[in-house]
């Protein structure tokens, strides 16, 4: 892996060394935590499912009233330039759009766009074979449909996750689960129906792909999942850009299904890996 | 008023021109909106009630697991240096403490401390004479006791406040009001009892001072205030470092009391102005 000193970023109109990418302290991200972002995976020089990520990026920007300084076409071309310049293997591109340099530290200004590309690791095979343990926490993100930069709760929970020797934390509200700080949640019912929450969640791109793939072989549902539904489930897993499909074998103190990664879960992971490959070759 | 180009700031250990104060894009404030801040008023070179602001600053830092890079004494001395260097009249000092330069964009790093001093305006006399109109919105901040940088909701509501020709927006939850994005709320009951919400609010320093001042002349209460309590109130006002005590004469479509700034409100404003003067002379 190369060090950050050799990486390039895009910052306010220019491609520059990542180590030279700074924002002034008057930026509303620093002053008021105001901004949105998105994150896509790059494999063999190809940003996977880029259309979907750009759609969501511009959607979040609109919801937060942040006009992007680049058109979708310009952003696409900038991403291509950055990928060529960095020439990384498996990596992620983060696009951050902030509230801009605010004169009074409160009113929105002209948004600042920053693109960062950095190497990425996928979950180790050992973790997929074993499955992960998760804990739960009552919380709903403020604007669940938008990918805002507000991860205060997620970061505050890192320690609790570690202390309980868990791998992630699933949010719920009034007994209905929603999402992880950075991943979506799925269960597989005893009848092999694949279910994922529909309310108060970020519409993950991997969530969307997995729902489509699951629909080819299984019944699928988007709807409310209670904690009790999870305890009764045959399988559970999470999805995200970096984690793909990761089996969940324990939720708080409750072992899910057989306590081992489920067949449907592993099948969907393989289908997703195939879909990524197909996308790269297309 | 001098331009920003002549102002000095403190950034990561150094006093430097404000225009040169930048944070790298890997900072968790930019990556994840993670940070806390505080803000005190400076008059005639004196940071008013600084002990209280520093207490709250370090309190917020502890709640958010952000160890400050300066001790309270060092911070106090840095504030003094900045005030001497900037030599401003009425101004505000903002202390921002961020999650730091995070290697993976998620885990907390060594916090970055930034101090900015900028000129400040108090509310014009005309606004005090007339009183302000406010609207309401259902919302509770995520960690109400901590002064985090997350103002996503407040900033998103700016437009609605303007569209409704209001001056600010009061948060409530389940019919119980809490606070404004940047101010505390008070009512004066028909029997002249001065009441302010106690739950889910930031403990404002001006709120504390006004409660103390009010206690010398009136009955005071910290407790739940419903929207209906407001409609029945004799007077209403908000408090903040920059706004001091500002009369509220309309809440949504409901005129409060006589529709003019109340006697108790204006009395408490005068007491606060006197207290500030006394602090400066002490």
Poorly predicted residue ranges of chain A: none
CATH arch. level architecture of the largest domain in chain A? Alpha-Beta Barrel
Overall mean pLDDT score of chain A?
96
CATH topology of the largest domain in chain A: D-amino Acid Aminotransferase, Chain A, domain 2
The helix/strand class of chain A is alpha+beta
Helical fraction of chain A: 25-40%
Q: What amount of the residues of chain A lies in strands?
A: 25-35%
Question: By CATH's scheme, which homologous superfamily of the largest domain in chain A applies?
Answer: D-amino Acid Aminotransferase, subunit A, domain 2
Number of helices of chain A: 8
User: Distance N terminus to C terminus of chain A?
Assistant: 28 Å
Describe the oligomeric state of these chains in a short phrase.
homodimer
From the spread of the alpha carbons, the general shape of chain A counts as globular
CATH class of the largest domain in chain A: Alpha Beta
What's the total count of β strands of chain A? Answer: 16
Protein name (chains A, B): branched-chain-amino-acid transaminase
Catalytic activity (chains A, B): L-valine + 2-oxoglutarate = 3-methyl-2-oxobutanoate + L-glutamate; L-leucine + 2-oxoglutarate = 4-methyl-2-oxopentanoate + L-glutamate; L-isoleucine + 2-oxoglutarate = (S)-3-methyl-2-oxopentanoate + L-glutamate
EC number (chains A, B): 2.6.1.42
Keywords (chains A, B): Aminotransferase, Transferase
């Amino acid at each position: 892996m190369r060090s950050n000193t050799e990486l390039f970023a895009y910052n306010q109109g220019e491609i520059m060394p990542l180590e030279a990418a700074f924002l002034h302290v008057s930026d509303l991200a620093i002053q008021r935590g105001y901004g949105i972002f998105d994150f896509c995976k790059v494999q063999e020089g190809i940003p996977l499912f880029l259309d979907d990520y750009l759609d969501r990026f511009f959607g979040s920007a609109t919801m937060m009233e942040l006009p992007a300084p680049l058109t979708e076409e310009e952003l696409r071309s900038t991403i291509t330039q950055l990928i060529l310049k960095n020439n990384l293997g498996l990596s992620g591109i983060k696009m951050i759009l902030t509230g801009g340099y605010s004169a009074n530290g409160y009113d929105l200004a002209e948004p600042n766009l920053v693109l960062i590309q950095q190497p990425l690791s996928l979950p180790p095979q050992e973790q997929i074979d074993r499955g992960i343990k998760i804990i739960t926490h009552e919380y709903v993100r403020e604007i669940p449909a938008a990918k805002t930069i507000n991860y205060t709760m997620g970061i505050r929970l890192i320690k609790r996750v570690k202390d309980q020797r868990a791998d992630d934390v699933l949010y719920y509200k009034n007994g209905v689960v929603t999402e992880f700080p950075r991943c979506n949640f799925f269960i597989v019912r005893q009848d092999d129906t694949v279910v994922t929450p529909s309310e108060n969640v970020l519409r993950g791109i991997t969530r969307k792909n997995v729902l489509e793939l699951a629909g080819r072989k299984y019944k699928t549902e988007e709807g409310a999942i209670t904690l009790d539904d999870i305890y009764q489930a045959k399988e559970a897993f999470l999805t995200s850009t970096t984690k793909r499909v990761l089996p969940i074998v324990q939720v708080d103190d409750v072992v899910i299904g057989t306590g081992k990664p489920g067949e449907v879960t592993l099948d969907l992971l393989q289908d997703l890996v195939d879909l990524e490959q197909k996308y790269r070759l297309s």
